[in-house]
Give the backbone structure.
Amino acid sequence: MKPLDLLFPPNLYCAACGNLIDRSRPYSLCDNCRDHFRWKLSPVTERNGIRVLACVEYGLYERSLIFALKYAKDRYCAGIIADIMRDRLRQAGVEADLIVPVPLYRKKERQRGFNQTALIARELARRLGVSCWTRALLRVRETRPMRGLGPSERRENVAGSIELAPGYEGKAVGKQVLLIDDFYTTGSTAESCCEALREMKPAGLTVLVYAVRTPQEEILAERQASLRIGRSINE
């Protein structure tokens, strides 16, 4: 908790825009921001062979919570996102016995001071009363930032970068495992994580993400990547 939080409790201000609110507002969001959130209500979908459940569409309002957590280091936002995820699980009828967050490379985690998905995962595990294994997955090499990369670039970037930590093989037999991530774009990170998690032999594996990008945005990102490649060739 930041020192000013003692004088100005976070739940008195909208977590997305900072406007003054009262403590009764769900998810600490003002009515305007909550109405602008594009909430996902569809059931679990299968994407590239993995089960994915998203809470919201990725956009200006929705991303503000993650940005506040990652870059402004407003850690209380992890609890808000966990509340959203808990309610989404209930709405979709998805159960979990074990939660695993997407890992950060150790150097990046030291620089930031925390892994935002691990913070969210711990908060969600407390709300569900299940175990959270924050070190079950490892980033074994550093990758480039995903922002601005197209689908093929993202897959190449993350390939071979995530492994199951030693000693976790076969540890989830008969369990429903929930992989937690903040954003889902092409699914390259989620796919790599799921490939590693299957070594734990879970009964089921679902990826729960806070925000998912629309297919149109994925196509646009691919086009932008192609333009960058074209410019580099011409140069």
DSSP finds nine helices and eight strands in the chain.
